[in-house]
Amino acid sequence: MIASPATATTHYRICPLCEACCGLEVQVEGSRVTRIKGAEADVFSHGYICPKGYALKDLHEDPDRLRQPLVRRNGTLQPATWDEAFAEIERRLVPLVDQHGKDALALSLGNPNVHKMGLLLYTARLIRAVGSKNIFSASTLDQMPKQLSSGLMFGNWLSVPVPDIERCDYLLVLGANPMASNGSLWTVPDFRGKAKALRARGGKLVVIDPRRTETAEAADAHHFIRPGADVFLLAAMVHTLFEEQLVHPGRLDDWLNGSDEVGAAVARFSPAAVAERCGIAAETIRGLARELAGAERGCVYGRIGTCTQTFGTLSSWLIDVLNVLTGNLDSKGGAMFPKAAAFAANTMGKPGVGRGVATGRHSSRVSGAPEVFGELPATLMAEEILTPGPGQVKALITVASNPVLSCPGGERLDQAIAGLDFMVSVDIYLNETTRHADVILPGMSPLEDSHYDVAFPALSYRNHARFSPAVLAPSAGSMPEWQILLKLVAIAQGLGAKADVLALDDQLLAADVARLAGEHAPAVLAALAGRQGPERQLDLALRSGPYGDQFGGKPEGLNLDKVAAAPGGVDLGALQPRIPEVLRTPSGKIELAPAILVADLARAGAALKEPAPAFSLIGRRDVRSNNSWMHNLPVLAKGPERCTLLMHPGDAAALGLSAGQLATLTLQPGRQVQAPVVLSEAMMRGVISLPHGWGHDMPGTHLTVAAERPGVNLNAVLDETLRDPLSGNAVLSGVAVVVSA
User: Fold this and answer.
1) Per-residue pLDDT tens digits for 686-730
2) Cα–chain-centroid distance for residue 443?
3) Whether 33 contacts 446, CB under 8 Å
4) Sign, CA torsion 630/634/636/642
5) Backbone angles phi, psi at 231, to 5 degrees
6) What is residue 6's predicted lDDT score, i.e. its pLDDT?
């Protein structure tokens, strides 16, 4: 329901600002938001809310948020009409691609894409229309190792098992801080409450982390680990399972390939061999393996700290190897596969078997890095722009992306982007990256959009389907992101800037339905009549999904009308075992020992002999911050300064540093940043922590609140050539640095 000017109304809304996806109640008077609180009736979050939920009001009202297109004229960005903006894109981009080829145009996709239904569904259409090999996203700064290991083991990039926390009695957490993040590649609002319930029923929470995080503070046990050493710990735990005959996969035994190969591959990683490199005693490592094997319902969960390191894919793989070998994969209380109501590839096609995944279908032009999940490493963007020759990137489209702050080597990338022939940004802010754009196309406030979480139900602790309509009517002169992206699709396809995007949407959907429904396509299209854009795609996905009404074949099933009519959404129940149905591997089995992963253990074995650096750098999460784009919202920006350098008091004393003093971090000559020191015994000795996504002090930006306390850009120090070679993910954690006063 849309508010009328003279009434006070309350609206249901799914929060789009982090992976928790909490249900909100938004109170509106006229067109003004007066109150936001957690929605008690939400079947998934049950009234929980974090500070980011309240910030939706600030985001909607932010005077810095762009509300009309900008076009660069005479060297400056100036307001323009939508027609003028799209005409400028057609005038400049089409000849450039015609002259230099499709790969001369790159796309960079940021984190907010996954939080808006229109963006996520229609960037896929834009990627296909552009046809470039140069696709970059935040995934290779964050999660690609987990997607790759899941794809190799289970046959689909997003078949990521998550902890069944409501029935778990032993949860081992590595390199993750769900107390601050509310899960990551695991959608779990109110982790604190669920962890408290786990312990109340006699369960145990154990955290492995170089910092005693908020999650570690609430745990039964916390063990420090040297940054980047997760692979050694995990391999040694697997070694212990084999050595002590604790391998008991249970019912999964019939669905496994490669158990013996794994046992042989970890032979060199005994607890004694890895203890010094991990900073964890051998007997403690054995004890962790025994506890996991002995738990009735146990689970290992690892996240960004395990992904953003040189052995990210190996660590992600070994986490699931541990869950498999202890019988805790696909088992109640263990690591389970959600069954999403819509859009999940592992619910489509023939169950239990598939083509699996492949990498390296093409490689980057300069470094030769392999494509993974259709993407190249984001850290290669600068060299692809700066290196002359056939295929050189000369134009860029960014969609809700700020790689100048989020990518290692940000200063070089900033210089590279400044030299592009043409750049378009779909973004609501004039930020560190979009300040270089020739055209900026702003989307609408989230409160003006309807919303369904396209990706996160496939990662949720419980199965559900929830939809929230727009809270407010669209502002005058605004354009939905899905229509903005379709305009770009039309330009890329040669249809021109004046193409009818609604007609184009009809054509694209008809092609999708023809592939899905064959001879029944006309009837399916007729059933979807009355909707357009993302909501029409959502109705199609729900009706054809695993709980759907199958267009009348199952009248009791779901469709968008039913989900929209349900206060707080539809609860689809606790996670259930899905093997073998969920598998999409050619063998129809879990591939426990993918060849490229087993081979990469040799690299880990060689690194095991190397001494740990004097100081290692890690990032950290904060409940009031999500990457680089929420620092302009007053409700989140208030409070203590967050871009600080955490350091153990003993390390600080040895360096002559005191609290509040600026410390200099040097990664290599010419790359330094300075940050104020905060002393914390929560830090492991020899480890320092500085968060990512800061550095809001560049000229040409318009982020008033963020500029008051800009912080420093950690990625100016990090080396863009450091990557996990399998996934292409940037190495952000465990990096050796020199610290000085």
Assistant:
1) 999 999 889 999 999 999 999 999 999 989 889 999 999 999 999
2) 20
3) no
4) positive
5) -60, -35
6) 56
Please choose, from the candidates 440, 451, 452, 457, the residue with its C-alpha nearest in 3D space to the C-alpha of residue 400. Answer: 440
545-564 mean pLDDT = 97
3-class DSSP string for 95-126: HHHHHHCHHHEEEEECHHHHHCHHHHHHHHHH
Amino acid in the structure at residue 345 = A
Q: How far apart are CA 23 and CA 226, in angstroms?
A: 38
Residue at 692 is within a domain? yes
Domain match, 195 and 260 both: yes
Q: Name the domain boundary from 603, 638, 668.
A: 603
pTM above 0.90, yes or no: yes
Strands (E), 147-291: 162-163, 170-174, 204-208, 221-223, 256-257
- CATH code of the domain in which 315 resides: 3.40.228.10
From 40, 61, 82, give the residue that closes a domain. Answer: 61
Range of the domain at 625: 613-740
Residue 2 has pLDDT above 70, yes or no: no
Q: What is the pLDDT of residue 628?
A: 78
Share of the chain above pLDDT 90, in %: 94
Kindly tell me the sign of the dihedral angle through the C-alpha atoms of 326, 341, 50, 40.
negative
**Could you report the per-residue pLDDT of 644-676, keeping only the tens digit for each?**
999 999 999 999 999 999 999 998 777 899 999
Q: Are residues 719 and 635 in the same domain?
A: yes
